[in-house]
Amino acid sequence: MCVCVSDACLQLPQTASARLVIVVVMAFTTDVAAVLGTLCPAVVAVNRNCARLRADREVVLGAVKQNGRFLRVASDELRADREVVLAAVKQVGGALQAAAADMRADREIVLEAVTQNGWSLEYASPDMRGDREVVTKAVQNTGWALQFASQNLRADPEVVLEAVTNVGASLQFALIEEVD
Description:
Blueprint: E1 2-5, E2 8-11, E3 21-24, H1 32-37, E4 43-46, H2 51-54, H3 57-66, H4 76-79, H5 82-91, H6 107-116, H7 126-129, H8 132-141, H9 151-154, H10 157-166
Parallel strand pairs: 3-4
Antiparallel strand pairs: 1-2
Helix pairs in contact: 3-5, 5-6, 6-8, 8-10
């Protein structure tokens, strides 16, 4: 297996009995020993310079299951892979930011992301920001997500109530009609 850190590439032996844990190390460093010293011996470190590994579905899927943030170093093709993106947002909802546009419009993926982290509503497609169930899940996670909802839902008393019940200060994002 190739361990890529900055421009350095080393080969790691792979034993049949060892389970390979994949972690993406996004630091740009040439100190391979320091990076690997903090990780278990059966770890593959991948950064932006390893195009082959960034496009390897098995490697990326393993990486995002460990930490969804690693979706951002995946190839464009894998950021559009439904299974990879779903695994990433289940782990870290904010991984939605790195997903391809059509994945940010996928209801199941967005629901998973906002349930895990309401702030990820910011990266959802406009249609998903107008989806009542999606926005409700987001504001239940954090009332602050109300600021990313569609105007219709920011004016919806039930959605606003969910948001302010979670975070009172989210009232500032509500669109409230003035009564004369």
